[in-house]
Write a structure and sequence with these properties.
single chain, 468 residues, mainly alpha, Growth Hormone, Chain: A, 0% strand, Multidrug-efflux transporter, transmembrane helix
């Protein structure tokens, strides 16, 4: 249901109480179960995978358990708007939940690593679709004045997952029951599949004749993501740099192919163009997300190997970033239009500042300053993310609203994949595989310093979004 379907009211109550009055908060809570499944999944697997690999083997494929999950999330997220249009939101959510549950079951029963990788791909496809469909549902069900508060609630779920996900995976792994970590999430997905048709009203669907399956576009996007992911684990620049160039080329081809598809587009036609507010929003999303990945990917290794921080201590620092994101999102969700421009700008500057100082701090300490920088980075994202989405979606043409809503979280997933790959290349060239304090200190400095220009591009794009 779009904003106009709520009735032509002179003013919309965008406070928390106003959301309750819409009568859709229960449905929103149900949809957020999908976000929980996706958000907690990768963190559960991070702590359960060592036990899994000890039983079924496949040490050298561990990174692909995350890479294939991310690939599935990107592909399904990119097609979420088309799926919602073709099947309606209710059926699309049920399909996504069932695919996710099937992936969980496959991973839980895996006799060897290749079967688990297939399950992880299916989990990514289902989980990514659930998240992207929730963003589509928000802009269909609620007036745009309410979007920042709802997105703030969604961010809070990610923060909760940062704490509980690793605990769930560790709990089952310590008991020697790592397979039950997958089973527990598969059962939750089945519950979601049952509750959606029972609780979501038919009026939230907009079923139309099914568009053609975007096979060529998804193939181009798959090639792009796989090349970038492969580049991240390749030690030789002679191999990794051509892979990166190839990944970028395939992504450009994907965008050009997608732009010619009319109403079947996955991304808005002007996505990633700095000449428009909408395009600048996508650039900010991509650049800031990629620049921030070094903390997640290499922060734990640096803190442990260079400073002797325990696994629990590392987990608390990484989780602090997510919690800061969630708290900032909730705290500033009620800011008006004038204030949101300021928050977008200051949030982008906070992210840029954190990335600039994390290199020297990671290399030399102190640890409390590293933790503070992580909090600043997370808070920066929390301050701008909801408002960035609202301004981007509001700037899209009516026929592009669904694709813009679904493409923003998908772009964030692409940014994570790109950032992880690029940080891998920088770390390996800085001496990550050599070991020793001197090499690790060099890695600590450059794996963040190399992303300062990327973060600066993202901050400039964010300022462009806040300008209009």
């Amino acid at each position: 249901m779009s904003q106009s379907q709520h009735g032509a009211t002179p003013a919309v109550d965008a406070r928390w109480a106003g959301i309750l009055k819409t009568g859709y908060l229960g449905q929103f809570a149900l949809l957020c179960l999908g976000i929980w499944l996706h958000a907690a999944d990768s963190l559960v697997v991070a702590t359960a995978m060592p036990a899994a690999v000890a039983e079924i083997g496949g040490d050298r494929f561990v990174s692909w358990a995350l890479s294939l999950y991310l690939l599935g999330s990107i592909l399904s997220g990119a097609g979420a708007a088309l799926c919602a249009t073709a099947f309606g939101l209710r059926r699309a959510f049920v399909i996504a939940a069932l695919v996710y549950a099937a992936g969980c079951a496959t991973s839980a029963m895996a006799p060897e690593i290749m079967v688990m990788l297939a399950g992880r791909l299916a989990q990514g496809l289902g989980g990514g679709l659930l998240v992207a469909l929730t963003y589509v549902a928000v802009q269909r069900l609620f007036p745009r004045e309410m979007w920042p508060r709802l997105i703030a609630l969604m961010s809070a779920i990610w923060g909760a997952a940062a704490f509980t996900g690793p605990l769930i995976g560790g709990f089952f792994a310590d008991l020697g029951l790592w397979r039950w970590a997958f089973w527990s999430f598969g059962v939750q997905a089945l519950v979601l599949a049952v509750l959606v048709p029972a609780l979501m009203t038919p009026s939230t669907t907009r079923t139309v004749p099914s568009p053609r399956f975007p096979l060529m576009r998804l193939a181009l996007l798959s090639a792009s993501v796989l090349l970038v992911a492969a580049a991240g684990v390749t030690l030789s620049p002679a191999t990794s740099l051509p892979m990166l160039a190839g990944g970028a080329a395939f992504f450009v081809l994907f965008l050009k192919n997608d732009a010619s598809r009319g109403t079947e587009r996955m991304f808005p036609v002007s996505a990633f163009s700095m000449n428009s507010l909408l395009g600048a929003g996508f650039v900010a999303n991509l650049a800031l997300g990629a620049a921030a990945m070094s903390l997640t990917v290499y922060g734990p290794f640096i803190l442990n190997r260079l400073h002797g921080v325990t696994a629990l201590g590392v987990g608390l620092i990484i989780a602090a970033e997510s919690v800061a994101w969630s708290l900032a999102a909730v705290a500033f969700a009620g800011t008006g239009e004038a204030g949101e421009k300021f928050l977008i700008r200051i949030g982008a500057l906070m992210i840029l500042f954190a990335i600039a100082v994390l290199g020297p701090l990671m290399a030399g300490g102190p640890i409390w300053a590293v933790a503070l920088a992580a909090v600043v980075q997370g808070a920066g994202f929390g301050m701008l993310w909801g408002f960035l989405i609202r301004r981007v979606v509001a700037a899209a043409a009516e026929e592009d609203r669904d694709s813009a809503s679904a493409a923003m979280p998908t772009t964030q997933q692409i940014a994570f994949a790109l950032g992880a790959a690029l940080s891998g290349i920088v770390a390996n060239q800085a001496g990550f595989t050599e070991g020793g304090s001197a090499s690790m200190a060099n890695v600590a400095l450059w794996v963040f310093a190399a992303f300062v220009p990327v973060a600066a591009l993202g901050a400039a794009a964010a300022w462009r979004v806040a300008k209009d």
